[in-house]
Fold this protein.
Amino acid sequence: MLPLSRTDVPLGLHGKPDNALLYVRYFARRYLVLGITGLVLFSLLLRILYVGRDRLPPLYGQYHQYEHRLPQHHWDAPSHQSEPKFFWIPGHSRGSGWGNIFQEVLLNAYLAHKANRGFVFYNYTWNDDGSDYSDYNGKPIPSRIPLSALIRGPIVGAPWPAGDPAPLAISEEYWHHVCGSNRRVIPRAEVHDHLPSWYVSDITKGWLDKLSTIDDHRARTDAPCLRPRRTFGEKDAMTDVWPDFARSPVLTHFAWSPLVELGFDNNREVFAPTSVLEPPLSAVPTSVLSAERYSMLPGLLVLHIRRGDYEGHCAHLARWSSSYLAYNALPGLPDRFTPPPGGSWGENTPENVQIYMEHCFPSVEQIVRRVEEVVQGEAAQGLEHVYVMTNGAVEWVEELKRALRGMGRWTNVASSRDLVLNWEQKYVAQAVDMLIGQRAQVFIGNGWSSLTGNIVLMRQANGFRPDSTRFW
């Protein structure tokens, strides 16, 4: 609309309206408005298309708050003299994958429970320098994830079974609040210098004997960890302790967090489509024990396949003639690996290296061939869906899926890349995968992987038939 007031009209040299300036100003305003509107719309479009690509990871504040508000945390108590006995292991692992951390958490909680002391649980920590975010392969990840965002149950402060006298677990934050400098530090050497082996049974007994002599309510170690790395890497390290560990409420009352179970429920039709309506895990009462809560999913085959830099790790394992990890060599499992002869200190023959690579870093052809072998077994009867747990590149995963479909026996083939996860679930996706693998009718995993090992442990503890758990 053109201006009508003469005071708004620019005048020329003789006091007459200057039509040229009038139209310049009109069109300048018009296109300025259009330009600003277009810029705003374009920005909104970019936000819709690319939202989340540059978002910082979640910090899981509500889970930290949940832990803070546990009823056994008496923050405002005038005195903490009546607090039960606790055991804290301050040097727990950092900067490792969830599989490595989780196997340590389970055994630390088991030891504290056996000692009748409250377990002091801690964050899943990648970096403890105080920063909220850390760099992982050029991408930001949370430096810390509260343990309750991954798991639930007595390990993170829920009640023990009725009649169990063990104190409730507390958070590391509350430990510092209660104990201050009033704590008994037990040097690791006082226990480990007298152990006959680094097996879990000997380490557990050594610490139980030591803790039984200490009256102090606040006991802690000075060690970076209670179990050396070779404990988890020794195939026989869990054999003696397994019967008692399997019966422990640490395992029988274990559960995944609501966040992880929701990821499972929301993707149920992705990895194992159902023909009948099944209640979601979120509808199952928390009182239901682990074996019933995470019962077998008939028809589901799950494959755990490591890719990426794992090729170099497999070559390292071959050079040192490594056996399967302790969790992957539990009693009753049918697949065993005996390092082939011919290797020497830090070296191995090309033939032996190839044997290791087939078991540790199999090709697509080798994967399909192994699946063909396993599905012939009695435990594999009725399989119809296959789900691939993997960190492989999209192109490689699609190649594998095509090869699996080419077997002509699967009604559904899916992988970790097909899951639809919310922003918080993205950073606990390994736990979602573990829950899927834990419930498979048949599971094939990597004997040197701690992630596989935790799945194997849960399956064995929950009574799955041993011949339904296999390795490459």
